[in-house]
């Protein structure tokens, strides 16, 4: 696309080292499989893969545009065309579901290793694209790349332990954590580990700071907003939420609810199982709720905000050029407009400008009646409905108050993805829109 | 008093005891020495230099007690012997009888003593007498027993002299009060002193804090105001052809001057460059004919009406008018919001 020979020769050195690193990693892995775990078959497979990586490394180091391994243009075009907020969000939700359902398959070390290598190779191939590299290799965004891999690794470790424990419990054995829990090795095992980690992390951070200096920009100005203007990476999920809500809700209420909801968790949890060991089968509801809120509603939104939101906060595909002139046709409409104008084909109820305040208020309430009714149904009518249907057992165990708190926290959390879906599918801006008093939902 | 000092303690005590023995009240005697004119020859001889006090017991010896003369004689003898300290005790012991007598007469004396306790001026004799009366009740012989009743009338007899008596207690009573106050002052000094230190400290602190706040507030009013004036001229109407969005005032003033169509009417208006969602500065996209915010993607039409993204209301207008010289003048001190129906205000636009 916008690839230039200068770019390729610049990135070729990095890619050569990158592929060589993957090759070395797999070589060590194959060696361990062969000598330590006695799996010569797998060892041969992975050493062959390492050889392939060495070939890629040498191709990349050539620096020739025709030789540097890259994704074909057609693939990039298709990916760009397909990607959008809808597909991204639905895709992450689908991925989350698949990973959860088939967790026993994915926790196998060979599967995980394969996925890791596939991801690394795909990233290497994508890196030959200038647009992709410009975003991913930006010093600001490098930590997010690290976050993706680190988070995947830790989630995998925890899931693996949980799966092992679940199998043991199913067989009537105690979970791994309860087998040898009489003593914990602290000195020198833990302390030395911590010391070594401390030194290693410090050295790593020093190197990082030297190699990827923090990007400095021009002095700030109140009339000049950088385009795109991005929050710190850990707030990008929040910034993405703000696209769908009024600031008071997405910037104040929802973050506070996240904090208070996390604090309320121990008091809402009635499940005595799974205490002190990893387990998914014994705590399905808690596990799914938390992972959905954390992985899908927070982490993937950070990734979306970092890599896929460009100038004017438009959505850009991974290989798309970030131009501020991208034309994106959008026409968001409030629910009152939809209801009164589009469906009933009549003007919005609006009081005369000189009408007394109660007339104004009455007209506003009438105008927002559909939105208020919807909101009321969602927050007031839905909890009891859920209590007699899918949450029947939980309602019996939790009691009225705890159930109400839980269900409302849950509904407010789900209001985010619901609103996102409504925005994409119906171009809905606000369900309740009272700009007269800056109250929009 | 000065004379008394010249006497030794022992002598005084002896005299006092002698006086008591005579059933005379020393305090009364002290209080009013003058009325005691009938002075016995012996006592007067015996204790002229001893004490005026000593003379009174003598005067009161009209009670006809033999012991008085004896005691005085003894005292004199003792004094003659020159054994001051030694004499005192023997004298005291030698006259056990007067001691009870003193006790017998103690009631008024005690009153005086208590008054003395409260009072400042306590003469040694009364203190000693009181102490002894309390510490050494002593036996009372049958012979002396009648002296008690005899002694009681005496105070009564002395009662006529009472008018002068109450006088001294009066000054003494205020004195204790004064003294208490003095004591409180002395004790409270630390409190007052430390308290006042605290008060001084906190006063200084609040003064300093107030000055600091004032100084801080001063920073909000710099000597040189770098801000551009809120009223500024943007040129004549001719400079804004139909459909034009003038962006050259954004950097300095934060204003777009637009010649656009609003609800079928061609107007020139000044839009504030602040997004109504979270306050970023949108950019004017000529190709798409819209204002687009880079922070959350809000979009506004050329007339400022919000149509995409999360912005909940249209951009705001500044006041605009045609100045006296015919130029357009934007006034940033006044804004007009569409959702409040303020765009109908003729000050919010200039008709073309």
Walk me through the topology.
The complex is a heterodimer of chains A (441) and B (352).
Chain A: H1 5-35, H2 40-62, H3 73-82, H4 85-101, H5 103-106, H6 109-127, H7 130-136, H8 142-170, H9 176-179, H10 189-211, H11 236-242, H12 247-268, H13 284-308, H14 335-343, H15 357-367, H16 369-388, H17 392-398, H18 400-426, E1 433-434, E2 439-440
Antiparallel strand pairs in A: 1-2
Chain B: H1 2-6, H2 9-21, H3 26-31, H4 41-46, H5 52-59, H6 66-81, H7 84-94, H8 98-104, H9 106-118, H10 124-135, H11 147-151, H12 153-158, H13 169-172, H14 174-218, E1 231-235, E2 245-246, H15 250-253, E3 255-262, E4 265-272, E5 283-285, E6 290-292, E7 299-300, E8 306-308, E9 317-322, E10 328-336, E11 350-351
Antiparallel strand pairs in B: 1-10, 2-3, 3-4, 4-9, 4-11, 5-6, 6-7, 7-8, 9-10
Overall pLDDT confidence of chain A: 89
Greatest contact pair?
A-B, 35 and 31 residues
What proportion strand of chain A?
under 5%
Q: Sheet with the most strands of chain A?
A: 2 strands, antiparallel
Radius of gyration of chain A: 26 Å
Give unreliable regions of chain A as ranges.
Answer: none
- Percentage of helical residues of chain A? 55-70%
User: Treating each run of at least 4 consecutive H or I residues as one helix, how many helices of chain B?
Assistant: 15
Secondary-structure content class of chain B: alpha+beta
Gap between N and C termini of chain B: 116 Å
Describe the structure.
The complex is a heterodimer of chains A (441) and B (352). With 441 residues, chain A is mainly alpha-helical. Chain A is built from 18 helices and 2 strands. In chain A, helix 1 (5-35) runs antiparallel to helix 2 (40-62), helix 11 packs across helix 12 (247-268) and helix 12 packs antiparallel against helix 18. Chain B folds into 3 domains: 2-172, no CATH class; 174-226; 231-351, Rieske Iron-sulfur Protein. Helices cover 46% and strands 14% of the residues of chain B. Chain B has helices spanning 2-6, 9-21, 26-31, 41-46, 52-59, 66-81, 84-94, 98-104, 106-118, 124-135, 147-151, 153-158, 169-172, 174-218, 250-253, and strands at 231-235, 245-246, 255-262, 265-272, 283-285, 290-292, 299-300, 306-308, 317-322, 328-336, 350-351. In chain B, the strands form 2 sheets. In chain B, strands 1, 2, 3, 4, 9, 10 and 11 form a 7-stranded antiparallel sheet that branches. In chain B, strands 5-6-7-8 form a 4-stranded antiparallel sheet, with no helix packed on it. Chains A and B meet through loops of A and helix 15 of B.
């Amino acid at each position: 696309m916008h690839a230039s020979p200068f770019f390729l020769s610049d990135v070729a050195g990095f890619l050569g080292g990158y592929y060589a690193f993957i090759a070395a990693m797999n070589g060590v892995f194959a060696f361990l499989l062969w000598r330590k775990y006695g799996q010569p078959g797998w060892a041969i497979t992975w050493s062959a893969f390492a050889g392939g990586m060495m070939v890629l490394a040498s191709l990349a180091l050539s620096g020739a545009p025709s030789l540097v391994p890259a994704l074909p243009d057609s693939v990039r075009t298709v990916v760009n065309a397909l990607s959008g907020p809808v597909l991204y969000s639905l895709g992450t939700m689908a991925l989350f579901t698949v990973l959860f359902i088939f967790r026993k398959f994915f926790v196998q070390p060979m599967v995980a290793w394969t996925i890791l290598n596939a991801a690394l190779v795909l990233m290497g191939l994508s890196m030959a694209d200038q647009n992709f590299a410009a975003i991913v290799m930006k010093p600001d965004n490098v930590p997010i790349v690290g976050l993706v891999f680190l988070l995947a690794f830790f989630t995998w470790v925890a899931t693996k332990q949980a799966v092992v424990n679940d199998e043991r419990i199913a067989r009537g054995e105690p979970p791994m954590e309860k087998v040898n829990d009489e003593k914990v090795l602290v000195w020198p095992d833990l302390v030395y580990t911590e010391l070594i980690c401390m030194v290693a992390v410090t050295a790593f951070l020093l190197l990082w700071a030297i190699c990827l200096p923090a990007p400095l920009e021009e002095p700030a100005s109140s009339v000049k907003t950088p385009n795109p203007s991005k929050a710190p990476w850990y707030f990008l999920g929040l910034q993405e939420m703000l696209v769908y809500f009024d600031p008071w809700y997405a910037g104040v209420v929802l973050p506070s609810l996240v904090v208070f909801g996390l604090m309320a968790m121990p008091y809402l949890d009635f499940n005595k199982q799974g205490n002190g060991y990893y387990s998914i089968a014994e705590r399905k509801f808690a596990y799914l709720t938390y992972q959905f809120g954390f992985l899908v509603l927070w982490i993937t939104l950070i990734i979306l905000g970092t890599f896929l939101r460009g100038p004017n906060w438009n959505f850009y595909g991974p290989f798309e050029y970030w131009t501020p002139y991208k034309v994106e046709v959008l026409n968001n409409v409030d629910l009152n407009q939809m209801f009164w104008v589009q469906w009933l084909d009549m003007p919005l109820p609006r009081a005369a400008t000189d009408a007394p305040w109660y007339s104004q208020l009455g007209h506003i309430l009438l105008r927002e009646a559909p939105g208020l009714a919807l909101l009321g149904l969602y927050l007031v009518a839905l909890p009891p409905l859920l209590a007699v249907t899918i949450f029947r057992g939980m309602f019996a165990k939790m009691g009225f108050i705890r159930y109400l708190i839980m269900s409302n926290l849950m509904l407010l959390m789900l209001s985010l993805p619901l609103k996102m879906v409504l925005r994409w599918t119906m171009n809905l801006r606000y369900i309740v829109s009272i700009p007269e008093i800056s109250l929009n939902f | 008093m000065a004379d008394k000092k010249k006497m030794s303690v022992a002598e005084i005590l002896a005299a006092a005891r002698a006086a008591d023995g005579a059933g005379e009240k020393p305090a009364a005697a002290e209080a009013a020495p003058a009325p005691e004119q009938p002075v016995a020859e012996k006592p007067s001889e015996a204790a002229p230099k001893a004490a005026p006090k000593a003379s009174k017991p003598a005067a009161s010896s009209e009670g006809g007690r033999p012991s008085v003369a004896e005691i005085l004689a003894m005292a004199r003898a003792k004094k003659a012997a020159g054994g001051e300290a030694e004499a005192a005790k023997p004298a005291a012991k030698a006259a056990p009888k007067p001691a009870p007598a003193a006790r017998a007469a103690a009631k008024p004396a005690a009153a005086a003593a208590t008054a003395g306790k409260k009072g400042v001026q306590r003469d040694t004799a009364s203190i000693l007498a009181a102490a002894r009366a309390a510490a050494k009740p002593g036996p009372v012989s049958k012979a002396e027993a009648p002296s008690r009743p005899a002694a009681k009338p005496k105070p009564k007899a002395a009662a006529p002299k009472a008018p002068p008596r109450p006088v001294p207690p009066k000054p003494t009573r205020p004195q204790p009060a004064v003294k208490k106050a003095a004591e409180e002052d002395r004790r409270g000094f630390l409190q007052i002193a430390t308290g006042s230190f605290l008060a001084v400290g906190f006063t200084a602190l609040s003064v300093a804090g107030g000055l600091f706040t004032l100084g801080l507030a001063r920073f909000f009013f710099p000597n040189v105001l770098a801000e551009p004036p809120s009223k500024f001229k943007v040129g004549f109407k001719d400079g804004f052809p139909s459909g034009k969005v003038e962006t050259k005032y954004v950097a300095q003033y934060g204003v777009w001057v637009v010649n656009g169509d609003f609800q079928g009417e061609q107007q020139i208006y000044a839009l504030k460059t602040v997004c109504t969602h979270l306050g970023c500065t949108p950019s004017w996209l000529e190709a798409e004919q819209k204002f687009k915010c880079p922070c959350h993607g809000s979009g506004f039409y050329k007339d400022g009406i919000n149509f995409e993204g999360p912005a909940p209301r249209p951009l705001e207008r500044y006041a605009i008018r045609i100045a006296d010289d015919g130029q357009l003048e934007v006034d940033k001190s006044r804004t007009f919001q569409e959702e409040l129906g303020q765009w109908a205000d003729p000050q919010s636009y200039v008709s073309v």
